Amino acid sequence: MSEARTPAQIEADIVRRREQLAVTLDEIGVRVHPKTIIGDAKARVASTVDQTAGRAFVTVNRVVTDVKGRFVSEDGAPRLERLVPVALLAVGVVGLLAMSARRRRD
C-alpha cells in the first residue's frame, strides 16, 4: 500500500499541476491566435509553392535536355538531319499563318 501524503505534498502537487496547466493554456492560446494561424497557413502555402516550382523546374529541365539531345549530338554539333525538317516545317506554318492573316484583311 502507498504511504499517505502530507498536506504539504498535496499542496505542492496542486501548485505543480497549476503551473503545468498554465503552460498548456499558454501554448493553446498561441496556437489558436489568428496571427499564428495565418503564419502557419502562409508557411504551408509557401512550402507547397516551393515544391510545385521545384517539380516544374525538374520537369522543364528534363524536357529541355531531351529536346536538346534530339537536335544536338553528344559533342555539341547540331544534328542537321533533324534540324532542317523542323525548320522547314516552322517556315511553312509561319507562311500559312501570314497568308491566312492577309486573306482576312482583304
From TrEMBL:
Keyword list, A-Z: Membrane, Transmembrane, Transmembrane helix
Lineage: superkingdom: Bacteria
Record-annotated membrane-spanning stretches: 83-101
Protein name (record): DUF3618 domain-containing protein
Pfam families found in the cross-reference section: DUF3618 (PF12277)
Key word Membrane present: yes
Protein's organism: Streptomyces lavendulocolor
InterPro entries: DUF3618
